[in-house]
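Hello Y.,

Per our agreement to keep a running log of every chain we model this quarter, I'm adding this entry. I've kept the format consistent with earlier entries: sequence first, then predicted structure.
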Amino acid sequence: MLTFAAGFALSALADRAHAQVAARPKPKRGVVDEHSVAEPVSIEVNARPIPLFEPRDRTRVRFGALEYRSGLSLTSSYRGFGGLSAIRLDPKGERFLSLSDKGGWFTGRIVYSGRAMTGLADVEAAPILGPDGRPITARGWYDTESIARDGSLVYVGLERVNQVLRFDFSKGLTRSRGEVVPLPPAARRLPNNKGLEALVVVPKGQPLAGTLIAMSERGLDANGDLIAFLVGGPSPGQFSIHRTENFDISDAVLLADDLLILERKFSWLGGLGIRIRRLPLKSVAPGALVDGPTVFQADLSQEIDNMEGIDAHVTPEGDTVLTMISDDNFSLLQHTLLLQFTLVE
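Predicted structure for the entry above:
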């Protein structure tokens, strides 16, 4: 765990350096490196089981409102595998769509034995394409941090440039081209390294049906709360999510009536912490300040890393399963973890 803390510290220093560089004119090119996905390719991903979420207590499986199911530590010889910042699953919790900070798609299938994950299969990587059909990294777009799905439409949030791209997967899946989604002017003024970090689409049957909810990592309003936007839908506008204990948003997932937000924080004294809060969807509206209870919290005494992605699916038995994935920042001191929990309450 101490090695991870060192790795996260190095990452924090790197983020600070990026922020200083961002004050200069943005380069149009130059973000392509050995971790960028250059072309579609099938890859092999190795998986090591994580039998316990809290190694110090072999009997504990309950953590707040979550019950640990299983976990995997993922590695690959493919240089572009890593930096995974979001994940979306099919209704069965098997097929997945993920992306890396470096502008790459990752698709594949989670393999199970009973209720426990045992590995990944059929994994493919592909570059995320812009409106011109070229990889988005060719125009200096990267830090692809979030995914939302609405049928065949897939939305991707780009933190560094605070833009959202929409893809129609009926036109080539990960080979489809992204179209820029118009956003409120305030979205473009978010910090370029603490900007758009989480996206969800409100489905049919809800008051906000058809709305893209876009949340910032640490874009703060005048009261120090987290800025979020309602894009499209019946009531577009801006609202805030109450920020407490210095946690920042890293992803979100929509349940039937609630919005679950995955949050994290880091300090030199306190180390890394993550939590999940449950926000009532009915409280989300233009001008609102939204808050809700913490249903899960963990720190470096448990098997966590830089957890950046979350999704949910319901099993045939009726269990709501939350899946989380970590961004290793392509660091040898961090890990790509895939964790699953049952939401008990």
